[in-house]
Design brief:
Function: Catalyzes the hydrolytic cleavage of the carbon-nitrogen bond in imidazolone-5-propanoate to yield N-formimidoyl-L-glutamate. It is the third step in the universal histidine degradation pathway.
GO molecular function: imidazolonepropionase activity
Number of strands: 16
Bound molecules: N-(iminomethyl)-L-glutamic acid, fe (iii) ion
Catalytic activity: 4-imidazolone-5-propanoate + H2O = N-formimidoyl-L-glutamate
Strand content: 15-25%
Distance between the termini: 22 Å
Cofactor: Zn(2+); Fe(3+)
Radius of gyration: 21 Å
Low-confidence stretches: none
Pfam families: Amidohydro_1
Length: 419
């Protein structure tokens, strides 16, 4: 039997439809391609028609009885949200460190004392594959309930060959066991593990000579990410790790200029990274270099808030011609959230994106940051039927009434998974 969904009478259907390829910059980030009294016909998981309800009635009225019909009168409808930066497949949790930070300890102090990424690494090493799958599935459910239909997920809590591969295999299982599409990233260079303290170069060699080839051999990742930060990996080490990944077909991404300025944005542009993440401390030269190279800035305003830091200069980056995406950074330390709606709100409030730019950054540009723009991130013929119906009547309201989950219903590949 055919699976047909017909969503009709959306007060605003923000299709984000796109002429031309690649992430949107400047003015185009404000162009949502809105259809009033909008309608979508989804057949066997794929979008078959988009237009006004009148137009689609002309095309499909004779087949209306075959469809599961949703009357979206009074509602905003958008593409499923895309979260292009998560660390979703981890073991344990770190609420004690949250308290320590509130009492004055800094994020890096906790990490340098063996906590932070190291404590999650310990818990992830100790967990079985089944335990990690079970914990992560709950997080994926929460993403879906917040309107997110596609995410990226990073390893980086193994920091040895065995556990890095375990985390990536867990993500492969999640991809099969959950409706959300999960795009995997290898991040063996998330931290130097405690047992390599004082032997950092040896760990870099392990990542380059053993981990990257093993990940590529099993085809467990699409991207290769590095935490380029003072006290973690230097720009020079980061470059070597990213170049090594490129030789194995892994596309570079970089956690850049998060805590201290370190020329990470410049490195992202020069190494040909698809995106640079965080960028709280990015220099003007780095921003210019990213604009010239077309590097996507993946900005994480929930992380900045959670670490009580000033958010990245999103407004300035867009105005400089950098394509901007946004993400939760879902992880147990600096951003334990699965709420992309909150991240959109924060993109407006703390980075001065317009409501339209925030929606573009969380859909089409986010899909570009993980090379998924051909199949999701906008509502266009031939793309996956990934759609959210919101309890709002327009896209400004979605950003304006903040800190609330406005999701009414979610379809993933044309199947109703929420609502
Ligand atoms: O993107 N900055 C480095 N990595 C993560 C945090 C990881 C953690 O604290 O467990 C981030 O914020
Ligand atoms: Fe991160």
């Amino acid at each position: 039997m055919k699976n047909i969904v017909w969503i009709k009478h959306a007060s605003q259907l923000a299709t984000l439809s796109q002429s031309g390829k690649g992430p949107r910059i400047k003015k185009a980030m404000n162009e949502l391609s809105i259809i009033e009294d909008g309608s979508i016909w989804i057949e066997n998981g794929l979008i078959k028609a988009v237009g006004t309800t009148e137009e689609l009635e002309e095309l499909f009225e004779s087949r209306a009885h075959e469809a599961e019909i949703t009357d979206a009168t009074g509602h905003l409808v958008t593409p499923g949200l895309v979260d292009p930066h998560t660390h979703v497949a981890y073991g344990g949790s770190r609420e004690k460190e949250f308290e320590m930070r509130l009492e004055g300890a800094t994020y890096m102090e906790i990490m340098n004392a063996g906590g932070g990424i190291h404590s999650t690494t310990k818990m992830t090493r100790e967990a079985t594959e089944d335990e990690l799958v079970a914990q992560s599935l709950r997080r994926l459910d929460s993403f879906l309930n917040h309107g997110v239909t596609t995410i990226e997920g990073k390893s980086g809590y193994g920091l040895n060959l065995e556990t890095e591969l375990k985390q990536l295999r867990v993500m492969k299982r999640l991809q099969n066991e959950h409706p959300i599409d999960l795009v995997p990233t290898f991040m063996g260079a998330h931290a130097v593990p405690v047992e390599y303290k004082g032997r950092e170069e040896e760990y870099v060699t392990l990542v380059i000579d053993e981990m990257i080839p093993a990940v590529a051999k099993e085809q467990l990742a699409i991207f290769n990410d590095v935490f380029c930060e003072v006290g973690v990996f230097t720009p020079e080490q980061s470059r070597r790790i990213l170049e090594a990944g490129k030789r194995y077909g892994l596309i570079p991404k970089i956690h850049a200029d998060e805590i201290e300025p370190y020329e990470g944005a410049e490195l992202a542009a020069s190494v040909g990274a698809i995106s640079a993440e965080h960028l709280l401390q990015a220099s003007d030269e780095g921003i210019q270099a990213m604009a010239a190279a077309g590097t996507i800035a993946c900005l994480l305003p929930a992380t900045a808030l959670y670490l009580r830091e000033e958010a990245a200069e999103g407004r300035k980056m867009i105005d400089a011609g950098v394509p901007v995406a946004i993400s939760t950074d879902c992880n147990p330390g600096s951003s334990p959230t699965t709420s992309m709606p909150l991240v959109m709100n924060l993109a407006c409030i703390s980075m001065r994106l317009t409501p339209a730019e925030a929606l573009t950054a969380a859909t089409y540009n986010a899909a570009c940051a993980i090379k998924m723009e051909e199949i999701t991130g906008s509502i266009e013929i031939g793309k996956q039927g990934d759609v959210v119906l919101w309890n709002c009547s327009n896209y400004q309201e979605l950003q304006y009434l903040f800190g609330v989950n406005h999701v009414n219903s979610v379809w993933k590949n044309g199947i109703k998974v929420v609502g």
